[in-house]
Design brief:
Helices cover 44% and strands 15% of the residues. It is built from 8 helices and 7 strands, in the order βαβαβαβαβαβααβα. The chain has helices spanning 16-26, 43-50, 63-76, 96-101, 128-145, 161-170, 177-187, 211-238; strands at residues 3-9, 31-37, 53-57, 81-84, 108-112, 157-160, 192-196.
């Protein structure tokens, strides 16, 4: 089964060499596609030096836009399984088999940092404010889908071909794309499951979204979710 990994990268020249070296050692038979999301550093040069496919965007679209390009490319190239992988070193290549094994009985698999049985030492920790925001997102997603997910914002995900074809054209391009993509997959009737995985701290560089911008995106996606709940309630009342 042809498998590809899509790596959105914005100014990740510091961490990306280690990530690509780990992937080459762990999954040498997987095609690697790096999306250089308008970086101002040598992200594209690092990808080229590693001998992987690199698609370059002329300016920064954000992670959602970069992922849509990656999904479109891998769909056109005929891949049957695709998974997302962070360029900053937080995702652990040893967890890839766990993620892909979930596709045996599902269309889409989300690697959760918070599920009971998480093999990470002590579990994955977030700050109090971010934890509260993530908890609210989980509650709203549960209300919107009728499904309980422990990690709605995880970017460590695997897709089978039918979901890949959907995401190639309709993947949300705004930040917090992970939450909206989860809703999109469930609403199209795909089977989505979570599997517990271990994740690490960022291995280099710095996050591209700072506190104020992150707060804005949380508010935006909350509005999207609440509006969706309102439409669902109205449709239920008229059914």
């Amino acid at each position: 089964m042809r498998t590809a990994v899509v790596i959105p990268a914005f100014n990740e020249a510091e961490a990306l060499p280690g990530v690509l070296a780990e992937l080459a050692a762990a999954v040498p038979d997987h095609a690697v596609v790096v999306i250089d999301d308008g970086s101002s550093d040598d992200t594209a040069g690092v990808a080229a030096a590693a001998g992987v496919t690199c698609l370059r965007l002329p300016f920064n679209l954000g992670i959602g836009g970069a992922l849509r390009l990656g999904f479109r490319f891998t769909a056109e190239e005929g891949f049957e399984r695709v998974y997302q992988f962070d360029a900053d070193g937080q995702h652990d290549p040893s967890q890839i088999p766990i993620l892909l094994a979930g596709l045996e009985n599902a269309d889409m698999v989300v690697g959760t940092r918070f599920a009971v049985g998480d093999p990470g030492d002590g579990g994955y920790r977030v700050g109090r404010g971010r934890g509260l925001a993530m908890g609210l997102l989980r509650w709203l997603v549960r209300r919107a889908t009728g499904r309980r997910f422990t990690d709605t914002s995880s970017g460590f995900r695997a897709l089978r071909r039918p979901v890949l074809e959907l995401f190639a054209t309709d993947y949300p391009v705004e930040y917090m794309d992970s939450v909206e993509a989860l809703l999109l997959a469930v609403r199209h009737g795909f089977t989505v499951v979570e599997v517990p995985v271990r994740m690490r701290e960022r291995q280099g560089g710095r996050p591209s979204t700072r506190n104020l911008r992150l707060a804005y995106h949380y508010v935006r996606v909350l509005i999207v979710l609440v509006a969706g709940l309102g439409r669902r309630t109205r449709l239920g009342a008229t059914a």
